[in-house]
């Protein structure tokens, strides 16, 4: 399958496409947690999960509300209460980065599967929510744009009740050449050489974000079906277009003439 560099990589590559060394800003595996659930294949029912006190946990540096030790992971939320996990400050971050993590939803029938993502302390995220799978981990990759040493990321259940989820392997890196599936972006964007209009062909409602090569968001909109969008306000040059549909994100490089 054809691959393209992620938005972070595209925005930071030189004209010679020289890869920068990867710097790890945060790498939390939650190996200190020895409860049940998640990595041991258990996703519901009466599990032995020691409660973690609300506030900052000394073992991980994460700040929690309604959190419990799982099997080398953390479970967030209860059947009747919304939970959240907030990373420590991303010390050493100055600019763009990539956030990767694994997450999966509690397996009961009425459990919501939308995981909310928030950023504080500076910067923006390429997506504000992702869709989890019940009873299994999925790996996600999200772009952090314009982050700072004060930046923190929040993982939060979708609603006040029945939004339980497991979280593991939260990592933030800079300068890495991550790859992203190119296929969906190619299908969504009909023309990659833009004049005054950009053409899209998508079945479902799709969020579109346009970034300049400094990683700055310069235009955002939504499209559905065969649709053309006025992009005459964009200056000439190269851009990275991020499309998000049904929780899946792809990027594509375009040129504005």
Automatic annotation (TrEMBL):
Keyword Acetylation among record annotations: no
Secretion system C-terminal sorting domain boundaries: 201-255
Family matches, as Pfam families: Por_Secre_tail
Signal peptide residues on this chain, from the entry's feature table: 1-21
InterPro entries noted in UniProt: Secre_tail
Keywords, comma-separated and alphabetical: Signal
Name of the molecule in the record: Secretion system C-terminal sorting domain-containing protein
Annotated source species: Empedobacter brevis NBRC 14943 = ATCC 43319
């Amino acid at each position: 399958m054809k691959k393209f560099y992620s938005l972070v990589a595209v925005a930071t590559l030189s004209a010679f496409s020289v890869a920068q060394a990867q710097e790890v800003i945060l790498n939390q595996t939650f190996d200190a947690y020895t409860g049940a659930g998640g990595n041991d294949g258990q996703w519901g029912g009466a599990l032995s999960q020691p409660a973690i006190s609300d506030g900052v946990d000394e073992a991980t540096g994460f700040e929690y509300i309604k959190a419990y030790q799982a099997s080398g992971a953390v479970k967030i939320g209860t059947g009747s209460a919304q939970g959240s996990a907030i990373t420590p400050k991303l010390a050493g971050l100055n600019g763009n980065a990539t956030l990767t993590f694994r997450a999966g939803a509690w397996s009961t029938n009425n459990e919501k599967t939308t995981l909310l993502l928030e950023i504080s302390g500076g910067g923006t995220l390429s997506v504000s929510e992702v869709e989890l799978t019940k009873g299994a981990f999925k790996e996600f990759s999200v772009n952090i744009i314009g982050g700072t040493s004060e930046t923190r990321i929040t993982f939060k259940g979708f609603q006040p009740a029945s939004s339980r989820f497991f979280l593991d392997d939260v990592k933030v890196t800079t300068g890495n050449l991550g790859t992203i599936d190119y296929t969906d972006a190619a299908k969504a964007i009909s023309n990659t050489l833009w004049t005054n209009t950009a053409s899209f062909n998508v079945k479902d409602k799709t969020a579109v974000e346009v970034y300049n090569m400094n990683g700055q968001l310069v235009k955002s909109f939504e499209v559905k079906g065969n649709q053309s969008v006025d992009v005459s306000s964009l200056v000439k040059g190269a851009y990275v277009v991020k499309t998000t549909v049904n929780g899946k994100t792809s990027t594509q490089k375009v040129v504005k003439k």
